[in-house]
Design goal:
The two termini are 15 Å apart. This protein has 16 helices and 2 strands. It has 445 residues and is mainly alpha-helical.
Length: 445
């Protein structure tokens, strides 16, 4: 869950925004530390409230229905589909690049393959929870193989004395606070997934033990891996060459692996497919939990009557992701995702702080020092406000307006419990079409 495919996408954007080798490596390390601190706070939240749904559940407990609905509204309509679209576009770029290495890959081919990937992953997760879990385990091994190839190749090149690009240090570093914040967006995208286990807390075995253990062991190892991967890239490519490459890992493979260069795009495509599968898995669970609480239409909380998978939620997520594939601008999608996501990560830190006062006697098998959620909250405020002040973009306004737009749906449909005419008939239609039934039980892993 922690070792994301973003390490094959983010290095270019992060280096471009920091401007120098040394500052980019510092930001990569800082992103790992920030993710670890945030994840430790989520461990406390997950152990205290052992229900699936992550932020949705924590906002509901700490603040009530409105903040929980706004999170579900933005996440289900924008964040989770955007994450799936980004990963599937990355998958298709690397796969198409493997067959068109001599020329620029056709945009239409990338879009079509990305869309087909979304359809395939949705089918897998709708067909069987066990199949989706097995796919995740198999493709995670490919991710580890890709990173191992890059790290070992980089060590060999460093041993041969290829340190000229790394020796440039802080040369060309940016002094813009906004650029550093958006560089964090690129880096944090690669680490994103540190809260995924909280979406399926109900499905974890021994969550009080396994949740903190997974975080404390996993994230430091991922941080070390990401730093080594970036050092390896820069042992082989100059800054200009890295910035010019659309598929950094493929360029690395062509420079280092010789006749075996095909292994790199193969390993990366398998890795990104696994990451997309994991994203679809958790997205379906969030949508299921939100609908179960009355924050989405009822049919999204239904499961297939035989497969017991949350197929309506999965199909809804896939439909929006397919629309997001059309622009094909991975960088803009990452910025939009990160800006919005860190609003809610900051909200989760606030929920933890608030519940220390409102629920002082609640059982906390794991408890972080209060300074950690306060620090993560302050950093999240910087990550949201910094880019707006330094370099305002229309995407940030769209994200803010979309959050506010949720209010127009909350008060009539959730607070007053109104329903649109014919909604009951529509629910029955989809129930018959998809062969789904209502349930209060989270689908088993």
């Amino acid at each position: 869950m922690f070792l994301g495919s973003g390490i094959f996408v983010s290095p270019k954007g992060l280096l471009e925004r920091t401007g120098s080798v040394a500052l980019s490596l510092i930001v990569w390390g800082a992103c790992g530390i920030l993710s670890l601190l945030g994840a430790l706070c989520y461990v406390e939240l997950g152990c205290m409230i052992p229900s699936s749904g992550a932020e949705h559940t924590y906002f509901l407990t700490a603040f009530g229905h409105l903040p929980a609905f706004l999170f579900a509204w933005v996440s289900i309509i924008i964040l989770k589909p955007a994450m799936l679209a980004i990963i599937c576009l990355s998958f298709s770029k690397y796969l198409v690049e493997a067959f068109t290495s001599e020329c620029e890959p056709p945009l239409m081919a990338i879009q079509l393959l990305g869309a087909l990937t979304i359809v395939l992953i949705t089918f897998i997760n709708s067909y069987s929870v066990n199949l989706a879990t097995r796919v995740q385990n198999i493709f995670t091994a490919a991710k580890l193989l890709a990173i191992l190839i890059i790290v070992v190749g980089g060590i060999v090149k460093l041993a041969q004395g290829n340190t000229a690009h790394l020796a440039k240090g802080f040369e060309g570093s940016t002094r813009s606070f906004g650029d550093i914040a958006t560089a964090f967006y690129s880096g944090l995208w690669a680490y994103d997934g540190w809260n995924n286990l909280n979406y399926v807390t109900e499905e974890l075995k021994k969550p009080y033990t396994n949740l903190p253990r997974a975080i404390i062991i996993g994230l430091p190892l991922v941080t070390v891996c990401y730093l080594l991967v970036n050092v390896s890239y820069l042992a082989v490519m100059s800054i200009d060459e890295l910035l010019a490459s659309e598929t950094v890992a493929v360029t690395f493979g062509n420079r280092v692996l010789g006749w075996a260069a095909f292994l790199m795009p193969l390993a990366v495509t398998l890795s990104t497919f696994g990451a997309a599968n994991g994203t679809a898995f958790t997205s379906g669970r969030l949508c299921f939990v939100a609908a179960r609480e009355g924050h989405m239409v009822d049919v999204l909380s239904y499961v297939h009557n035989r497969k017991l998978t949350p197929s309506p939620a999965l199909l809804f997520n896939a439909a929006i992701a397919l629309i997001m594939v059309i622009p094909s601008d991975i960088g803009s999608l990452i910025d939009f995702f990160s800006f919005t996501a860190w609003i809610f990560y900051g909200g989760a830190m606030t929920a933890l702080i608030v519940m220390r006062h409102t629920m002082p006697d609640a059982p906390r098998p794991y408890k972080v020092p209060i300074v950690i959620p306060v620090l993560v909250l302050l950093i999240s405020i910087y990550l949201v406000v910094g880019p707006i002040i330094d370099s305002p973009q229309i995407e940030y306004l769209y994200a803010t307006l979309f959050i506010v737009a949720g209010l127009f749906f909350y008060f009539p449909f959730v607070y007053l419990k109104k329903s649109l005419p014919g909604m009951g008939h529509l629910t029955t239609f989809f129930q018959l079409l998809l062969e789904v039934v209502p349930t209060d039980v989270m689908p088993d892993a």
